[in-house]
Write a sequence for this structure.
């Protein structure tokens, strides 16, 4: 039988104890095996597009500013941020993306080659059409 395993009296449950240490390294969690083992498990690096994630965050922040009444128009917001109102308007469309597409952006699960430039172009309004559009971009 395994060294750190215990079988229940009825033989239906096997409990295995594995001594592990959890450490943070660079903001990422690592699972460190016992000292006599050489295995270190590390989650795969995120493929999230930092530029796209930042744009998504900015768009939601700006939408919040507009919704709260802090700014009454995109033009007023653009002047305060010292950016072109057209740019802000394009980025604000990111707030209309389907939740699963936003999750894919944040998790780095977008098809390879799709970036901010693809989202700056006009997108369908309906979430089902957005998913189809994204799928089409991933095929090309």
């Amino acid at each position: 039988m395994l060294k750190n395993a215990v079988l229940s009296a009825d033989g239906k449950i096997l409990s295995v104890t594995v001594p592990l240490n959890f450490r943070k390294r660079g903001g990422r969690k690592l699972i460190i095996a016992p000292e006599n083992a050489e295995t270190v498990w590390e989650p795969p690096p995120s493929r999230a597009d930092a530029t796209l994630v930042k744009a998504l965050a900015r768009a939601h922040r700006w939408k919040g500013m507009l919704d709260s009444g802090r700014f009454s128009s995109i033009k007023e917001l653009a002047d305060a941020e010292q950016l072109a109102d057209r740019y802000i308007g394009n980025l604000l469309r990111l707030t209309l993306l389907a939740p699963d597409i936003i999750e894919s952006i944040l998790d780095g699960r977008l098809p390879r080659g799709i970036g901010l430039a693809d989202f700056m172009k006009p997108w369908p309004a309906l979430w089902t059409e957005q998913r189809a559009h994204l799928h089409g971009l991933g095929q090309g």
User: Anything to note?
Assistant: The CA atoms of residues 79 and 85 lie 8 Å apart.
